[in-house]
Amino acid sequence: MQALSGNKSLMGKVSSRLSELGLALPAPPTPLGAYVESSDSGNLLFLSGTLPVVNGKLAIAGRLGANLSVKEGQEAARIASLNALAVAKEHLGDIDGLKKLVKLTVLIATTEQFTDHAAVADGASDLFVQIFGRETGHVRLVYGVQSLPVGAPVIVDTIFEIER
């Protein structure tokens, strides 16, 4: 029951947490193909994978284990997560309609030898914990891939619980 009471105390506070952290959401990204950025069903909001894009361009490009460090990968995951929040805000009209992050999937462009996937994904997880609190928790899947669209090093895929 403690997690439920934690969720109730969070309601209406996502925008406050962003302000406290000194974070401003970017303009939401636009689709790279024939799909939409967001779709809801019941009390869940599903977002298309988001990239580390700033002002319409990749902020960080490359492959982990080749030309990018774990720290650069974490920053890319953080930027992609902020883009996910921007998409959620656009869909809902108000960021405070988000109750919690339910599931996070992080795809990482890596070399075969790279093994620090979890550390890179923490760039996204840590941001969501700062915003939603540790008590709400989220499940996570992280894996390495050969390549990602437009040379991106990460894609962040999110499912949020929303207030109806």
Please give a structural write-up.
The protein is of the alpha+beta class and 164 residues long. Helices cover 34% and strands 24% of the residues. The protein has helices at 2-10, 14-20, 70-92, 117-132, and strands spanning 38-41, 44-47, 53-54, 57-58, 98-109, 139-145, 154-162. The strands form 2 sheets. A 5-stranded mixed β-sheet has the order 1-2-7-5-6. Strands 3-4 form a two-stranded antiparallel ribbon. A hairpin with a 2-residue loop joins strand 1 and strand 2. Helix 3 crosses helix 4. The protein is globular.
Helix content: 25-40%
List low-confidence stretches: 1-12
What is the helix/strand order? Answer: HHEEEEHEHEE
The total strand number stands at 7
Spatial sequence of strands, sheet with the most strands:
1-2-7-5-6
How far the N terminus sits from the C terminus, by CA atoms, comes to 20 Å
Largest sheet: 5 strands, mixed
Characteristic key phrases:
24% strand; alpha+beta; disordered N terminus; single chain; two-stranded antiparallel sheet; 164 residues
Secondary structure: elements and pairs:
Elements: H1 2-10, H2 14-20, E1 38-41, E2 44-47, E3 53-54, E4 57-58, H3 70-92, E5 98-109, H4 117-132, E6 139-145, E7 154-162
Parallel strand pairs: 5-6
Antiparallel strand pairs: 1-2, 2-7, 3-4, 5-7
Helix pairs in contact: 3-4
